[in-house]
Amino acid sequence: MEYMNTSKTTYFYAIGLSYKKADAEIRGHFSLDDQAKSNLLQQAKEVGIESLIVTSTCNRTEIYGFAEHPYQLIKLLCENTKGTVEEFQNVAYIYKGKEAVSHMFKVGSGLDSQILGDFEIISQLKNSARNSKKEGLLNAFVERLINAVIQASKRIKTETNISSGATSVSFASVQYIMSNVPDVTNKNILLFGTGKIGRNTCENLVKHTKNKHITLINRTKNKAEEVAGKFNLLVKDYANLQEEINQTDVLIVATGAQNPTVDKHLIQSKKPLLILDLSIPRNVHLNVLELEHVSLIHLDDLSQITDETLEKRKAQIPIAKQILNEVEAEFNSWLETRKFAPTIKALKLKLNDFKIAELDTQRKKLVGFNEEQAEIISNNIIQKITNHFAHHLKDDTIPTDESLELIKKVFQLEATTNHV
């Protein structure tokens, strides 16, 4: 089955890189903030891309879309990030057609996540699809695919236990703090950055550590205040960052900046300090490790930490894959229907031409010709014929492509490239 666009010879691709082959530094080179994503979408429209969605998270950056060649999508990515084509080629993956569809299902289901069962990616895919739709860059194929992936994700989350335990970076970070910081309830904790990961981390901190000494700082103070208000936490100005760092025991950085926001020069205190960097690209400079009393954990480190529920979650993979196979099969069935729909439509138009010509002939031949009744009977016959052909094409035991070509040839229908 070819996953082709209806208007020109373009194919559906998934291109990107993830934690599997790209380390934090390389992933940082290809990270896209909101402005970069917006610029990429605008550029895609300018070069004639019909449908495209782009996601960029802490463990992957991906583009799904239609293109004549994957390089069109790679070029868009490199022109809107610090990454180069050479870097991309060393760590990237490129999937085409059915493989690209299967890849999106695995990503959206949490089976391809850095932490098995992490479902935060599905919200990223939803947001990406909404942004593309606003820009007129979401065709029927990609919209249907996204909805199918969402459906599969929901089923896996409700029908399996794959999301039990530490299934997100935010929860894994809190679990690490609880396991490695003695008397964590009474320690000073500073959260720098209140984006999505920061918000989720804050919620997990409050829920699991029972700590009332949590301070929030964000460049835009009102965003920190929104988060703090839910949990009655303290908010400090960005200008007080250094002062707060030197008073804290645990520093969590999730700013989403393109360059490090914390380095050794901000740390003047000599007491033990644990820093967790939950950002891509890295937001904590590695020079903090030159300070003997500082420990630094990056999100890539967290993914290596296993808990007692990991084996239980792994045992759920076969069930999750079965759900994926079912939903993906439904999507492919819909796709097959779209594949032959243009031919059925062309056949119906051809039969309608036959009807019009024949009714015109009979109208001239017969006195008192009942045109209304003849119209009804003719339309019913045309519908029965086209339904018969449609049922034939839906038969899995019959080669669809051969049948389509035969129908086109017999009824002299115009050749078409309507293979979605």
Task: Provide a short characterization of the protein structure.
Catalyzes the NADPH-dependent reduction of glutamyl-tRNA(Glu) to glutamate 1-semialdehyde (GSA). Helices cover 52% and strands 12% of the residues. The chain is of the alpha/beta class and 420 residues long.
Structural overview:
Helices cover 52% and strands 12% of the residues. Mean pLDDT is 88; it is low at 415-420. A six-stranded parallel β-sheet has the order 7-6-5-8-9-10. A four-stranded antiparallel β-sheet has the order 2-3-1-4, with helices on both faces. Helix 6 (120-134) packs antiparallel against helix 7, helix 8 (169-180) runs parallel beside helix 9 (196-209) and helix 14 runs antiparallel to helix 15. It has three domains: 11-163, Beta Polymerase, domain 2 (2-Layer Sandwich); 169-310, NAD(P)-binding Rossmann-like Domain (Rossmann fold), CATH 3.40.50; 341-410. The relative contact order is 0.11. The protein has helices at 24-29, 34-46, 70-79, 85-91, 98-108, 120-134, 140-159, 169-180, 196-209, 221-231, 241-245, 299-302, 310-314, 317-365, 371-394, 400-410; strands spanning 11-18, 52-56, 60-67, 93-96, 189-192, 214-217, 234-235, 250-253, 273-277, 294-298. It has 420 residues and is an alpha/beta fold.
